[in-house]
Records
---
Amino acid sequence: MGFKSSLFTSLLMVGSAAAATTTAAAAASTVSVEPIIMKGTKFFYKNGTQFFIKGIAYQQDTGAAGTTTGSTYIDPLSNVTLCERDIPLMQKLETNVIRTYAIDPTADHSGCMALLQEAGIYVISDLSEPDLSINRDSPTWNTALFTRYKSVVDELGQYENVIGFFAGNEVTNNNTNTDASAYVKAAVRDVKAYINSTSSRWMGVGYAANDDDDIRDNMAHYFNCGDQDNAIDFWGYNIYEWCGENTFTGSGYSEVVSFFQNYSVPVFFAEYGCNEPDGAKGRIWEETTALYSSEMTDVIAGGIVYMYFEEANDYGLVSIVDDKASTMADYDTLSTVIAKVSPSSTAMSAYTPTNSPAACPAIGSAWQAADVLPPTPDNSTCDCMVKSLTCVPSDSLNSTGYAALFGSICGLDASACAGITANTSTGVYGAYVMCDATEQISYVLDAYYKNQNSDSSACDWNGQAQVVKASTAASSCSALLAAASSSNSYAATATAGSASTSTGSSSGSSTTSKSAAPSFSRSILTLGDLSVGLYVLVAMATGAGMLVL
Ligand SMILES: *[C@@H]1O[C@H](CO)[C@@H](O)[C@H](O)[C@H]1NC(C)=O
Ligand SMILES: *[C@@H]1O[C@H](CO)[C@@H](O)[C@H](O)[C@H]1NC(C)=O
Ligand SMILES: *[C@@H]1O[C@H](CO)[C@@H](O)[C@H](O)[C@H]1NC(C)=O
Ligand SMILES: *[C@@H]1O[C@H](CO)[C@@H](O)[C@H](O)[C@H]1NC(C)=O
Ligand SMILES: *[C@@H]1O[C@H](CO)[C@@H](O)[C@H](O)[C@H]1NC(C)=O
Ligand SMILES: *[C@@H]1O[C@H](CO)[C@@H](O)[C@H](O)[C@H]1NC(C)=O
Ligand SMILES: *[C@@H]1O[C@H](CO)[C@@H](O)[C@H](O)[C@H]1NC(C)=O
Ligand SMILES: *[C@@H]1O[C@H](CO)[C@@H](O)[C@H](O)[C@H]1NC(C)=O
């Protein structure tokens, strides 16, 4: 479940709340917040007191207010007037965490963040937005996504009451799309390294999973296993198993606790609050009592109620009419229930973690993501590659034509496409899987042309391609391109069962990428609409599949 939206738009522009923002920020600037850190499977205030999440999901769907046609999301933390309306209501529920699903990194969040801080409320935010997220049907981890994720970290990371981020929400959601988890784990790795290199304090990077029987155990192990620099800092479970009246065992909560007993990082409910049998307002919150009881608190670090806003899916605590908030019956029930919970806590000094990371799941029909991950998106590498090409798209090729061209070229010459192929189950990736679609089609045109001994007739495609002189590239390009070229040769020849051999090649190229100076130069060719890129990649994958057959 969670935040879903599909309309197309540009980012929300927020500016006129500046005056209110400044006032709120000034008022709160004297309040300092005790940062949250993790140790083993538990969260703590930095002062050593254990921290249990009492959270609420806080994100209004587009169109819910009837005001925002044409937006893919409404930033929940950029309008101080709305934060002033809602935060007191969340405080009355003893809320200490909100989960936001999509924020606009260009907006000013200082007002809302200050109000939250004053209220003792921390934020865990998803990094994606509807138009820039890892798509389970055509998963990728590329420069556009990494740029978006970094911008959210840069923006929210300024505020000490940010605990961390989700690199994905229910991306893999059943056994047909387990491959997508490789890209999400690559995002975890890269965002962790980015936080590590840019922030002076800890912020975690986790994943929010759905609760699908077939995959949940493999998935939990996958995100926890292997090199801990690549593994999640916390596991969020979106769980709706306890509905109405139930019990610890009857609800399946006991199995969750028993499964996660051995997990090595914090686990919490990233969404909970089943609305059956009586709809949102009929919720009685027995599961909340259970969540903070001694049966669970040793293993589960609390949970986030889904959700603040009452909307068409009927999971709300508060309904909004004409910008006015009114609490619903389940809000009152929750406030009574939450007032009575009193989780018994452990002091950080008295706690010695003993669990170790899980083993990675075996690759097979049930799980198709190896722990050898896709490369780190690196604009410099893509940029250097484009500059080195001598066969490139002509003006008459636009993104509509990419799919057909990928299909034709990769069908004629698979080796020309090795640099953009990916196999999650063997962990073999071309170096340019992380570039954008325009860069990729350029690479493929050029590789085909070179494979045809630079015969000019091999760089035409009905006028869609043209021969050019390679541009002068920065001296730093030669090392990047050499590393990419070696990954691509490996990808071209890689066969079954070669995941371990590929480790060297893959990590070699990502190390090179990471150490490269960031480039702010834009590609000479840009693609406006990512969804076109995704479409192209789907078409391409289909083409490549047919080729294998
Ligand atoms: C904040 O929300 C209120 C209520 O919807 C609206 O009237 C106001 O214009 C918004 N402010 C900004 C800066 O968007
Ligand atoms: C640590 O900080 C939290 C939040 O301010 C506070 O509730 C708690 O009492 C503090 N613990 C200690 C040991 O000072
Ligand atoms: C990197 O490339 C992506 C995709 O082309 C683009 O959206 C982004 O702005 C670039 N980032 C930088 C820092 O140049
Ligand atoms: C798996 O999830 C996808 C995407 O939500 C859906 O289209 C497909 O029907 C699901 N398949 C199964 C077997 O549940
Ligand atoms: C963070 O940086 C430290 C030292 O700079 C390093 O030991 C650690 O492995 C890094 N972690 C990640 C996730 O990059
Ligand atoms: C947890 O670890 C113990 C000891 O290693 C083991 O016996 C048990 O089977 C594990 N439980 C799960 C659910 O993995
Ligand atoms: C894009 O190229 C296609 C041919 O592949 C053409 O039909 C279409 O008009 C072009 N669109 C634009 C906006 O140039
Ligand atoms: C990945 O590689 C393995 C081993 O070569 C092969 O069996 C499998 O079909 C490939 N998967 C895809 C999606 O191409």
Note: The chain is about 35% helix and 15% strand.
---
Amino acid sequence: MARLNGVVAVLSRKREPVGTVLEVDAPETQRPWGWTPSGVEVAADHLVIGDRACQVREVAAWPAVLAPGAMPDATLAGEAALVIGLAPVPAERVNAALDKALPRQQSAAREAQRKGSVDAEQERKIRDALALKEAIASGMVRHFDAHVSLLYWADGAEAAVEAARAAQRRARERTLELVALRHSQGPSYHGALPGGRPVLRGLLLDQSQASALFPFTDENLLDPGGVFAGINERTGAPVLWNRWLPDVSHLLVSGDTGYGKSFVVKVLLTQERVFGRPLLVLDPSPKREYAPLLEALGGRYIALQPSGTQRLNPLEVMPDGAALAEGHAPEQHTGRPVSDRIAAVKPIFAALCGESLDSGPFDAVLEAALQRAYRQAGCTDSWDGCFTGAVDALGSLAWRPKTAWPTLGDVRRALEASEDAEGPRYARMLAPYCQGGSSDLLDGQTTVTLDSPVVGLGVNDLIAAGGRFARAGYAAVVDYAAQRFRALAAPHKVLCVDEAHNFLRDPVMAPWLERQTREARKAGISMTIISQGVADFLRNDTGRAIWQNTRCKLYLHQPAGDLSEAAAQLGLDPQMLGEAAALPRGHALLQVAERVVAVAVQAPDTLQPMLRSDVAAQPRGDA
Ligand SMILES: Nc1ncnc2c1ncn2[C@@H]1O[C@H](COP(=O)(O)OP(=O)(O)OP(=O)(O)O)[C@@H](O)[C@H]1O
Ligand SMILES: [Mg+2]
């Protein structure tokens, strides 16, 4: 990435810094301000310092729409520097100006009305002014006087003046207007004097970051309404990021073990909860590391057992949250809930049986057995075939199941009765997961109650059971959690799947996870998918599909080679992600679409005890 040669200063009217001075990276020898000059000659429109000369231009006008980056491209060729001076304008001053203009605009509008016409321009101005006054009153808008100056350095005054003129011509092509700034004008001129600002802190900035400052977009505000993702490593400013805008995005978190993936996710989950969003976390850690936080947030944590008294039925169909939110009765809602459920559970059954859905008769035989199980339970493939609408005590519409859902045991019996010769063999493979078997959590009607907006499901014991159940059991819980979340009417929900490499590295489960991500987004669910490295996403087509279709990503420390491959997949400069290879624990790159910001993850002291992964939680909610 090209490094820009210059200084970005944030100054107040009194020429005192009010913000950070950002020093753009340049070799020491090229820094005119890297030494204290023996004397400065101030000419009418340029400075001469030793054998170096500088011409200053101020941006006098710029178009309303100017993409970040356009400005340096057009104007910062050669040895140029950019100075941005921002001085806050008191709200009273802006209000006074608006109050002065409003009566004039209102009388012009009235005059037009009297003549039987409409002065659309005046009416728009009135609307804008009133909206602006409201925004100022509510604190949503603050005003700044902005000076944007450009400094052109060269050996000798003539060359500096020529460099400035050439830049001015290029700027005009972009409808940017630059005017020569004279020694007597503007604080920026003084702010830019070389050698004169030893007290200011210098920070490195590359071209994309400098250009992001103009026209006053800011990489720290990936969305000003968002949650706090961390401190910008370069500027010290808080980085705010919003996973819900412009549409729901999942978050992919990757990094080597122990570098703080779970930590940052816990910080983000806490903030999402502050905004009232329901959370559901799948926790595979042996120490139930999410329990302290989720319980502190008033939630419920349930450590699931492969074989115990609790049950979680993967064949249960849940109501559609979007339809509930609209107040639709089941008969008003179209869809094929049974077919959808069958498609969702087939990979889980395949994983339990150790069979593939792509080859041999397994898919067809299983499909027939699942269909038969639903038929025998009395469910038909429509919402009103599964549910009846009922108004509850509080007057809101609820959907009640018409019959008991089929169970895993029912599918096993249907396989046994299959006309295909392989059916009974598949039935035997399911036996360990049916009631009385070694891991029978999934056989029977659901008893686990998820009656809180914050839920943690501990799945370590399922994974520890090993064998096929390790992956399939975890998958069934993710599937159940996602389904339950889809049934919630809340518009935004966060579903967190930690240690997702369990799925990404598996040829059957990776497509299943990809399907989950697509369905989830449609239902307003943002999944947080945590994995040990970007490589987990890049090793198969479905992993790559998840990767490419996710706008928001967090990269922690991991191998450089994987990061550059990931960048290539996204059409990004490899260096943009490569930095993550050198990050210490607790630091991350946050990527939102094409923008990447390095952040130091921080949490308030009060939260710290809840964020550690190495403290065993007291088991609660076990059956
Ligand atoms: N930003 C941070 N500030 C303070 N401590 C941190 C930070 N990030 C991580 N830690 C500490 O490092 C420990 C390990 O972090 P964490 O459990 O989040 O790693 P991980 O990447 O999730 O590892 P694993 O892959 O093993 O799950 C935490 O228990 C915590 O004490
Ligand atoms: Mg972790």
Note: Residues 91-114 form the longest helix (24 residues).
